[in-house]
Amino acid sequence: MLPQWYSTLTTKPVKTLNIANPQTPPSFGKSGKKIVSKQASEHEQDVLKVKKAWDIALAPGKSLPMNLFMSYMSGSSLQIIPITMTAMMFFMTPLKSLVTCHKQFASLISPTNKSQILMCEVVYVLILLATMGAGVWKLGQMGLLPNTRSDWLAWETPSVYLEVVNR
């Protein structure tokens, strides 16, 4: 004998779709033709372009806290991983972005929003310079920057650091 669920599923009639009167998608009208929305005015387009420019300008600043945290977690020891991370996060990526700075904003510039886009570019460059400044600070913490006279002059004796161990 067959189970009850099998007979219930197989004896009920199957619903058929009403193909004669299909519903149209939301973006189409009653006639089936696509409804075209009105074009945005030039002022609206400029406002959207400036918003996009600010998004581009602030993007490096959003990754700076994470880069600083990763830099902190990698330590200040002189090993290949922290040095490579510092070079890539704080120097190579910002330098590449500085070189292509104007190209990123070129498609957004129009005669009416040129000054606003220029302000976005300035903020973008300042954030990239702050990122590079964080890299210089990290290199200083690692001891890779020459900051004493003995680092530059051969006849100067290097500073002697006294290590104090508390036991």
From TrEMBL:
A GO MF label: membrane insertase activity
Main location, first listed in the record: endoplasmic reticulum
Keywords, in A-Z order: Endoplasmic reticulum, Membrane, Transmembrane, Transmembrane helix
Keyword Transmembrane helix: yes
Gene Ontology biological-process entries: phospholipid metabolic process; phospholipid transport; protein insertion into ER membrane by stop-transfer membrane-anchor sequence
GO cellular component: EMC complex
InterPro entries found in the cross-reference section: TMEM85/Emc4
Annotated compartments: Endoplasmic reticulum membrane
Membrane topology: Multi-pass membrane protein
TM segment ranges: 72-95, 116-137
Family per similarity comment: Belongs to the EMC4 family.
Official protein name in the record: ER membrane protein complex subunit 4
Native source organism of the sequence: Yarrowia lipolytica (strain CLIB 122 / E 150)
